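Reviewer 2 asked us to include a model.

Predict the structure of this chain.
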Amino acid sequence: MAEKRSKWRHRLFHTYFLFRRPMTLGARGVVIDEANQSVFLIRHTYLPGWQFPGGGVETGHTLEQTLAKELMEEGNIELTGRPELFAIYHNAHASKRDHVALYVCRSFRQAAPFRPNREIAEAGFFRFDDLPAGTTRSTRLRLAEILDGAEPPLAW
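Predicted model (structure tokens):
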């Protein structure tokens, strides 16, 4: 009986904290080509600028599962090896409670050329020294951190 009350109490507190302190979590991938010359970027239909592919973690999914799903949906990119977790950032631009796990992906294959859809207007690989106009400031900063070895800040 005590065990049953303990489980009930655990669920009650968990539910309370879920509503009291909800947090959102996303995963983004910095997909770098084999020659270490270019990066895969996307442009959404509903947001300005070019950025890394990714999305929010759904209930029951891990960060890596989310990343793999988003890369496939947004660029026909299939991971062939585990991505490397680079940093976790607080993304106050999205909300006070949003966090982003940024992964570097070097083991992948593009299953088919990307075709625009309702969510992604454009996508492709771009040389580091020739990023498209409109690449977001955050995307440029994250690339500099990865490529130049700069210490990542806590905020996106």
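The beta strands are 24-31, 38-44, 50-51, 54-56, 77-79, 84-90, 98-105, 108-110, 120-127. The CA atoms of residues 144 and 150 lie 7 Å apart. We have added this to the supplementary material.
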